Amino acid sequence: MADKMATRQAYGEALVEIGEKNRNLIVMDADLSKSTMTASFGKTYPDRFFNMGIAEQNMYAVAAGMAASGKTVVASTFAMFAAGRAFEIIRNSICYPKLNVKICATHAGVTVGEDGASHQAIEDISLMRSIPGMTVLNPSDGVSAKKAIEAAINMQGPCYVRLGRASVPVVYDDSLDFQIGKGITVKEGKDVTVIATGIMVNEAIIAAEQLAGEGIDVRVIDIHTIKPIDEEIIIRAAKETKGIVTAEEHSVIGGLGSAVAEVTAKAAPAKIKMIGIQDRFGQSGKPNQLMEEYEITAADIVKACRELV
Amino acid sequence: MINVDEVKTAAGNMRYDIIKAVSSAGSGHPGGSLSAADIIATLYFYKMNVNPKEPDMANRDKFVLSKGHAAPALYAALGRKGFFDIKEMYSLRKIGSIFQGHPDMKKIPGVEMSTGSLGQGFSTAVGMAMAGKIDGRKSKVYVLLGDGEIQEGIVWEAAMSAAHYKLDNLVAILDNNGLQIDGRNDDVMKVAPLYEKFESFGWEVMEADGHDVEELAEKLDAADEIEGKPVMIIARTVKGKGVSFMEDEVGWHGKAPNAEETEKAIAELGGER
Fold it and tell me: Using CB atoms within 10 A of its CB, is residue A269 exposed (0-12), middle (13-18) or buried (19+)?
């Protein structure tokens, strides 16, 4: 795999691979197939690909009807229009009847970049994890994105997979053991723990390397499954290190930070600092500029870790 | 050939069940359930290929109640057809009952889709029809919509997609009783002209008296002959049909009859079964 790739790219490639063996797999899109990367599936398997036009609500309800007829359906659009616009359809027509629809939403977070706030979903994790029975995945790189898609398709029931637009460093190699609900200890450490999700895992790794030079031993955990969350790995971090820094490219309201705090508050109260979007809308700019503007870079993680030790 | 007596008897029994269940629940939607009773009876007791002993039969026809608040009418049809003991549905809306206020496909045998949030059932029926095409099935998907329901934007998204994918295995029926919670459709939000709207969306549109089971059967049969596009049957109905004091009365959309009203309604419907 290349050094850098967008998680949506890995997603598009994974779909084509899975589609060869899994003939029951149907893919849908809402006029964004070149951006969400479902277009290659459509080209390879035209009989199992449906463009539903610019009508996300209908797309997700149609997906529910297909799933009720025994199909496994992957339906893609931007995170804003999936989790946001189609929220109530996902809730009532997909999750309530526990149907086998995989909502693979790309262009999540502020790293959408130049399109600006209207297209930067920073609430999708919060919305999706609040629905009873929904599984929420947020892979960090190309390798884990591919494995997340496989896992999502192989599991029974609804699943939300959060994917990004921007090209990001590849963190893992192919030997990665990706299991829904199991966090990954990317690096051991005894002083402080960074619990990161999505593209923030790479920022956490950079932060940990820098802090090692200062004599601070940072544990880095990748929570790729926001729900069901790996409580055990979080409780262990809360008990064994001095504090937790959560890192997400999402609002700190209702996202990973909240999910981690829900676990520690009940089982092992810990000091937590939350790196994420602080109750603001996004804006236009380059992805790296926006990460700086919203204080979600490795440098921000470093600062938060220092404050905890 | 339709056995008119059989379908009419079924519809009469269903009306009785609707009143009985809604009255016992102390809440629910009698008006729209009664307006839909003859349509649903014609589907289950004449048109559709379903098997209560094998609800998941592969080649079955499917019915989606997109106007999910008419759940009592669907439950009554399924019960009278033998999917479960009809008396069970009198636990409607009570805690622990499988008979939820709106249909739950995970709980009740024969219910094809969980509905209640308006417009969504229509789209799910489109999905079922698309899946039927992929699998080369000959069976049909029927979906019942309310006329107030079509004010939902998703209905028109679904209508567009059904025509785009040439779903001639999809038949929609519009329960056109003219009323919704806050008043007459066209006063609340104009839905007319219905025929032209669906026709312009690429549907084959038919009209029928929604309480004339023979005409309904005739139109449902005619729908089988249509190729290359979905069919919409606009069924003119009377909300609350069969109970004189509920007929065309907007107040009976979502209100249960009290003991006295229940007695009167049941007497009008031919008495206790």
Answer: exposed
